Amino acid sequence: GQSLEQPSEVTAVEGAIVQINCTYQTSGFYGLSWYQQHDGGAPTFLSYNALDGLEETGRFSSFLSRSDSYGYLLLQELQMKDSASYFCAVDTGRRALTFGSGTRLQVQP
Amino acid sequence: DAGVIQSPRHEVTEMGQEVTLRCKPISGHNSLFWYRQTMMRGLELLIYFNNNVPIDDSGMPEDRFSAKMPNASFSTLKIQPSEPRDSAVYFCASSPSDRTNQPQHFGDGTRLSIL
User: Fold this and answer.
1) Could you tell me if B103 lies within 8 Å of chain A, comparing CB atoms?
2) By the 8 A CB rule, do B33 and B95 touch?
3) Chain A positions touching chain B (beta carbons under 8 Å)
């Protein structure tokens, strides 16, 4: 079977840094993606990691450790508009993604 | 450029009725995905197509669900007969290829309520 574990909710203040973790257990693994979804909206792609290490895109960075079956999304200089749900998703090689249950981030003033 | 277009945005119908959801992928994308999102089960892949051919329909919950992609610019997801437990947000997404390092672009979804 396949499973992805994320915290259900994280709270942080504006300007802070927050890390959202994702651990996975899958029968195959090709890469880890992150998607953002605002309430009532559609998921939007943030990042993809296939190799170990940190990928940085503006205020957002994503990290992967294949040996630990672990990744995280790092959000810096938090803004109110970052309040949303964040999903990790695993590519197990079946050419489709398996999504985690999502982490709801609340950014407070 | 237009994104993924889904219709209708909202659908409310009584159980037993047939429901048809529609999706127009981004032009040039050759992979199309149908997802269902609920509070209980999260975001689930129902089926995906590559070059209009269904590749994996293992997520389709039961025979009441069917999906087609008659051409590169149109897909439908049909539920017949519908049941209250089918109430969910249904998303369609498209991708430039079937390589999952490519971003999936989601439509705004169809909010389906079965009474």
Assistant:
1) yes
2) yes
3) 30-31, 33, 41-45, 48, 50, 87, 91, 94-102
Residue with tokens 């996975």: A24
Question: Could you give the residue ranges of the DSSP H alpha helices within chain A?
Answer: none
CA-wise closest residue to B72 among B95, B91, B90, B56: B95
Q: Could you please report the per-residue DSSP string of B6-55? A: EE-SEEEE-TT--EEEEEEPPTT--EEEEEEEETTTEEEEEEEEETTEEE
Q: List B79's β-bridge partners, or say none.
A: B19, B65
Closest to B82 (Cα-Cα) out of B59, B63, B64: B64
Q: Which of A33-37, A93-97, B18-22, B35-39 has the lowest mean pLDDT?
A: A93-97
A42: closest CA of chain B, how far (Å)? 5
Residue B84 phi, psi dihedral angles, 5° rounding: -55, -35
Q: Is pLDDT at B49 greater than 80 in this prediction? A: yes
Q: Is B84 helix (H, G, I), strand (E, B) or coil?
A: helix
User: Which sign does the torsion angle of CA B59, B63, B65, B68 carry?
Assistant: positive
Q: Identify all chain A residues contacting B98, using CB atoms and an 8 Å cutoff.
A: 95
Res. A1 pLDDT band, cuts 50 70 90: low
Note whether A102 contacts B99, CB cutoff 8 Å. no
Answer for the pair A22, A100: CB distance below 8 angstroms, yes or no. Answer: yes
Average pLDDT (A49-57) is 93
In chain A, residues with a C-beta closer than 8 Å to the C-beta of B91 are 42-43
Chain B partners within 8 Å of A97 (Cβ): 45, 100, 104
